[in-house]
């Protein structure tokens, strides 16, 4: 893993040095907490979460009180109609 710090240098971000995926970070606002990319965890999918906050990527709660939340991503699985197979197993 490759470590990356920016701005104040307090938050520590880690990326795979081979493929570049963000894996996790140690939070600046609370160094005892970590943010983890769920796509890096076996048997967990981003689609397992029905609603996820979307941040503006600029505002940080520690910088002035604003949450930076600009919306929410919602996942609703589509219910597909049954497929006619003519009695054949597919």
UniProtKB/TrEMBL annotation:
Residues 1-63 form the CENP-V/GFA domain. Gene3D superfamilies: 2.170.150.70. It comes from the Bacteria. Signal peptide: none annotated. Keywords: Metal-binding, Zinc. One of its GO terms (molecular function) is carbon-sulfur lyase activity. The keyword Lipid biosynthesis does not apply. InterPro entries: CENP-V-like, CENP-V/GFA, Mss4-like_sf. Belongs to the Gfa family. This is GFA family protein. It comes from Salmonella enterica (Salmonella choleraesuis).
């Amino acid at each position: 893993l490759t470590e990356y710090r920016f701005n104040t240098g307090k938050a520590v971000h880690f990326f795979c040095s081979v493929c570049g995926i963000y894996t996790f970070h140690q939070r600046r606002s609370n160094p005892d907490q970590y943010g983890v990319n769920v796509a890096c965890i076996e048997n967990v999918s981003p689609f397992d979460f029905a609603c996820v906050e979307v941040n503006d990527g600029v505002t940080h709660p520690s910088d002035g009180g604003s949450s930076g939340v600009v919306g929410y991503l919602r996942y609703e699985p589509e219910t597909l109609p049954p497929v006619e197979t003519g009695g054949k197993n597919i």
